[in-house]
Write a structure and sequence with these properties.
heterodimer; A: alpha/beta; eight-stranded mixed beta sheet; four-stranded antiparallel beta sheet; 11 helices; B: alpha/beta; about 20% strand
Amino acid sequence: MAERLIEVRGLKVQFATEDGVVRAVDGVDFELGRGEVLGIVGESGSGKSVTAMTLLGLTKDTNTRFEGEILYKGRDVLQMNEAELQDVRGNEMSMIFQDPMTSLNPVYTIGAQICEAIQIHEKTQKGIARRRAIELLKQVGIPNADSRVDNYPHEFSGGMRQRAMIAMALACNPDVLIADEPTTALDVTIQAQIIELIDRLKDEFNSAVILITHDLGVVADVADSIIVMYAGRVVERAQTRSLFYDPQMPYTWGLLGSIPRLDRPKQERLHSIEGAPPSLIRAPAGCKFRPRCPHAFAKCMEEPGLENRVEEPTHLDRCWLSVAEKREVREATIRGEAA
Amino acid sequence: MSSTNGGSPLIEVRSLKKYFPIRKGLLQREVARVHAVDDVSFAVREGETLGLVGESGCGKSTLGRTIVRLLEPTAGEVIFEGTDISALGTRRLRPLRREMQMVFQDPYASLNPRKRVGSIIGTPLKIHGVAKSERRQRVQELLETVGLSPEHYNRFPHEFSGGQRQRIGVARALALNPKLVVADEPVSALDVSIQSQMLNLLHDLQQELRLTYIFIAHDLGVVRHVSNRIAVMYLGKLVELSPAEELYRRPIMPYSEALLSAVPIPDPDLSKQRERIVLEGDVPSPINPPSGCRFHPRCRYMTDVCREVEPPLVDYGVGHLAACHHPLNVDRETLARATVSERHTPAAADERAKPRTPGKEEAHPIPE
């Protein structure tokens, strides 16, 4: 197996608010090795972004409580002080944010922002940092990088800004690249470009990637393994092929069925997961997905554990239905025919 | 024409142009123009959904807004139920505004945060003179129609999630019983799970209220799902117009082919097998569009002719029009029969693509 970079064990993140304790992340475990791509999939409010930000120590605050461990090369990120975190952030682990319009500073040039990232972590001369910035912009496919380096963010299109963000994230050759919905704000054509770019750069920089998205289609051909999150928990975790061809959680079926499929005949109606994700302050008892699940039964009032139930040993899920039952009703549910 | 029946066009766009002037200097002289919509013609029949696709900056939103006269067209006609509305004055336009409504992309920006839901949905009713006593009841009905609860009447937009806000936007658009709804990227800002709820809602409303949609989006997967016909735009031009299934089975314009291949497929094996045509770069500037075929700098089939001559919109039969010098998926026989479409009267093509029942897809024979 590839060198293990990240190991998350029993991670919980809770925010104390006026209305009560928000259990944003409530039991997440995973490992990530060098050269691997992990997809984290779920709806808004499922805790996927909080998980990602916690990996970088970005959720530390007076009202936050953590449980569990995040081991980065054996060191626990949760125990690090601000100086140590500063050293890891951007240097060893870096992040690409969702909205390239708001995550770049509008009053500095693209080049200056990339140089800043380099110079924070390395004692480099300005000229050298600038040359590195140009080189990075070339690597992420910005045409005329020599002159574009002096442009301001508003002179870049959405896709180019996201490329610039990626260049910045790669500036210090990080081991782990965390991309939080990197393509949600972009056109499908640009989305295809960016995903391909991330996949290529992962090999060039020999790093690991965590790709967060709400669309299973986006991770289908780049991720090695996938975590599906719901209400702050991992509800299914498997190798990519196993997840797509033998999905075990009715929530995953819902996500799969919600996507209009170009490779299949057109349907009258799409499957949709009725209702909205539950409140993270007062989550429902038992299985968190029960109120929205078309297959819920009495046993679902107890919470199922994340266990292996199928032949594939790395495939874990949280559902009480028997595997045989699931395989029987699954296709109909994905096609939107279940009652 | 007094009223429409069956399949006559509800709205017809003829050679519509919208240029935005760029002014500079003390005298604000016009130095250049953004060619946002450049000579676009098509018609939409009653009960039909026309999907309008293209990347950011291709002019699809401008086209949508110009059709409902939120923007003044530079040239061309927009004929709604037989009346040219492109030149009507404000007063004569007002009764027609009831018939044409819009749903906007961003459910966070398109609802006034200081108004209650009842007032947001009730405003169009107020403007068009519905008595106060009736308004409340109508708004509550509308809330139910779009799957919200009548108790939401007194709430503020911030109390709702993105998907629910978009439902409020739809309720507002439906308040005056419009015939045409222009939906500008109504699901792009939503999670896939919420997106499918919205698409189902729009589908049900169309069946119930016999609505005609112009559905604008950048994702051909979504557009194919909702549309009877699809119009593909690139840099202000209409480059392909086709029945939805036909476009998906045999795209003629290389740009449409690339758009189709960019839609992610949630199936790892299929996704790896299929050919991904990744378009290089971005859409060029609409201020100085490329010469000849506007798509040529990004096209993998490009030859000299593409650089020099702008391809005309050619009619390939079964209501499938495309503008390309190197048409894909077209056999010799079809090519021989194909004729340059009379761009200003595309009604002929629209006529042939007519579905038998509005809102339902008709199967077209594919010429072998």
